[in-house]
Structure formats: structure tokens, C-alpha cells
Amino acid sequence: MISVDSSTIEKTKCDKELACLKGLPVYCSVLGTLGHNMLTLECQDRLECRYNNSYGALHVCKCPVRHEIFKKYGK
Asked: Closest by alpha carbon to 5, among 64, 73, 56, 74?
């Protein structure tokens, strides 16, 4: 079971109702990191998400929950 710190959940304004913590598939695969708090993603589709930004073909995620999942579980 995936879990993250409650303070991380409190500071995340998720439009997807934290689907990544409810056993549903994570929307985008992590390719790597940029800096301290950004993940580069491989996305199937352009998702409407306040934390997923496109820079050309690159998708960058600043979601605190998604970042903690990657740090804790490597996925």
C-alpha cells in the first residue's frame, strides 16, 4: 500500500482526489528528476493537472504527493 506523510497530503491541492493513493494507476511514469522538487514524466496523454506542466515535449511535475511517492517507492 502506498502512503505519504499527512502534511504532504494537506499541502497538495489534487484535482484527481489523490487517485495515486487509492490503488489506482499512477497517471504518468517518472523518467527522472530536475532539481530538488520536480519530476520529469512520461505521460500517455496531456492530463489536466495543476502540477503537470509541459515544456515542449517534456512534462514536469511539481506535485508534492507524486514526488514523495517517487522518493519513497522509486515509482
From this structure: 64
